[in-house]
Write a structure and sequence with these properties.
It is a single chain. By secondary structure, the chain is an alpha/beta fold. Helix content is 27%, strand content 22%. The chain has 3 domains: 165 residues, Ubiquitin-like (UB roll); 154 residues, NADH-ubiquinone oxidoreductase 51kDa subunit (Rossmann fold); 71 residues, no CATH class. It has 13 helices and 19 strands. The strands form 5 sheets. Strands 1-16-15-19-17-18 form a 6-stranded mixed β-sheet, with helices on both faces. A 4-stranded antiparallel β-sheet has the order 2-10-9-6, with no helix packed on it. The chain has a 4-stranded parallel β-sheet with strand order 13-12-11-14, sandwiched between helices. Helix 1 packs across helix 4. The longest helix is centred in the middle third of the chain and has 15 residues. The site of one iron/sulfur cluster has 14 residues, from helix 12 and helix 13.
Length: 428
């Protein structure tokens, strides 16, 4: 068992070359966009009714549970109604259907000056609905409300998932916004140091970023190893700061933010626009022309597939996100949201699994230092006490246990089932 040490430090084939050198292509605007009334497992309040006219930047839905996150229209047009569809988190949810009038009338939007106070910035990020763009979609403002004890702002530019290059392209295309976003988040974090973590292998790019921050003595670029899951918060905090924490990075004196989130913050400050467009990587051996696509939020994935010249074969495996932590989805009707950053399309391969060899590879490679094989066994017998002892909820669903299993068992799915079982029993 190794937390962040030893054999778990595994380099995975990145396949980044499929898209990293290509230009970003703009997806054609579609007749209708669909805004899910769900964010992960949370349900959203609808703020519009059938027949309403909305503009680019109109609030159409609101998350208002323990988090506050407004959700916006990415086009102007008329609300045609509501429709149930699957989301990128593989949940069925009602979606707002907005018919695009192709006029792109924009709401009266507030911008924010670079010298705004911390309170103004936090409130601005909150009202613009900025969420983590690394895939998790965590509301960004929340990390910066209470920053007592924060010594380091850690900018996560690692992008460790195979195939995905959208963070890298976002940085390359938006260097000025990246600088403004990082400086702004650094200022409101109250930290004395900012570290930008990026893979060591990107030597030239590291030099370019260093040059951009050469006059900022407290902002440092840190090269990290090209291993999976280096981009996971816990791994990264340990790698860069040699600190561990129980629940949140702030316990280790640190706030972690994805680099695209910093870019989106700067773009919102400059233009007043919330996240209405995303750069999304579409890659894998199941798509004819892998590339990064600039797409309006609410666009069905089928349009991205069409832009990338379709599938290479009939039997494909579609994954919202990267192949390790993404969600396998049965069709391409789901839509791109503000937190989505990739679509992996792989040729379907039948997997013939065998009985567990008790080799311990899944245990050795688990970055959460839990025992996936034992969890799988306890899940089969529905043993609640044993599952709690095995600390199932520490699993980050990184997919590593399945990846290393010589018996080709879907160990991660067994752990996911165990997590769902405990959640049903109210033992989150
Ligand atoms: S999916 Fe969960 S149990 Fe499996 S290696 Fe990753 S963290 Fe460990
Ligand atoms: S890696 Fe696979 S075969 Fe080895 S102990 Fe884990 S589940 Fe069993």
């Amino acid at each position: 068992m190794s937390l962040l040490l030893g054999p778990m430090s595994k380099h995975l084939p990145g396949h980044k070359e499929l898209t990293s050198h290509k230009e970003i292509i703009k997806c054609k605007d579609v007749d209708k966009i669909y805004i899910p009334l769900a964010m992960g497992t949370a349900l959203l309040e609808k703020k519009v009714s059938e027949g309403d006219y909305v503009k680019v930047g109109t609030v159409v839905a609101l998350r208002n549970d323990h988090f506050y996150v407004p959700v916006f229209s990415s086009v102007s047009g008329v609300v045609k109604g509501f429709e149930k569809r699957m989301t990128s988190s593989t949940k069925m949810a009602e979606h707002i259907v907005i018919e695009n009038d192709f006029k792109y009338v924009v709401e009266d939007l507030t911008t924010l000056s670079e010298d705004a106070s911390k309170e103004e910035v936090v409130n601005f990020i909150k009202e613009k609905g900025i969420v983590g763009c690394g895939g998790a979609g965590f509301p960004t403002y929340f990390k910066f409300v209470k920053t007592d004890g924060c010594q380091t702002l850690l900018i996560n530019a690692v992008e460790c998932e195979p195939y995905l290059t959208s963070d890298y392209l976002n940085m390359k295309e938006n260097l000025e916004d990246m600088v403004l976003g990082i400086k702004t988040l650094f200022r409101i974090s109250g930290a004395s140091t900012c570290k930008i973590a990026i893979k060591k292998t990107k030597k030239e790019f590291i030099e370019r970023i260093k040059e951009l921050f050469k006059n900022e003595t407290n902002i440092e670029v840190v090269g990290v190893s090209d291993v999976y899951p280096m981009g996971w918060e816990r791994t990264l905090v340990y790698e860069v700061l040699k600190k561990r924490y129980d629940k949140l990075p702030i316990e280790a004196g640190c706030i972690v933010s994805n680099v695209t989130t910093a870019i989106k913050t700067a773009q919102a400050m400059r233009t007043g626009l919330p996240i209405v467009e995303k750069i999304v990587t579409v890659s894998g051996d199941g798509i004819k022309s892998p590339c990064n696509v600039l797409v309006r939020v609410g666009t069905p994935v089928s349009h991205l597939v069409e832009l990338c010249q379709g599938y290479t074969t009939e039997n494909i495996q579609l994954i919202a996100g990267g192949p390790m932590m993404g969600n396998a989805i049965t069709n391409d009707n789901f839509v791109i949201t503000a937190s989505d950053n990739g679509l992996t399309v792989l040729k379907y391969q039948e997997v013939k699994s065998m009985a567990c060899l008790r080799c311990g590879a899944c245990v050795d490679h688990c970055p959460s230092a839990i025992m996936p094989v034992n969890i799988n066994n306890a899940e089969k017998t529905k043993n609640v006490d044993r599952l709690l002892k095995l600390n199932v909820n520490a699993c980050i669903e990184c997919g590593m246990c399945t990846y290393v299993c010589p018996s080709k068992l879907d160990v991660t799915e067994g752990v996911r089932r165990a997590k769902r079982f405990l959640a049903l029993k109210g033992k989150k």
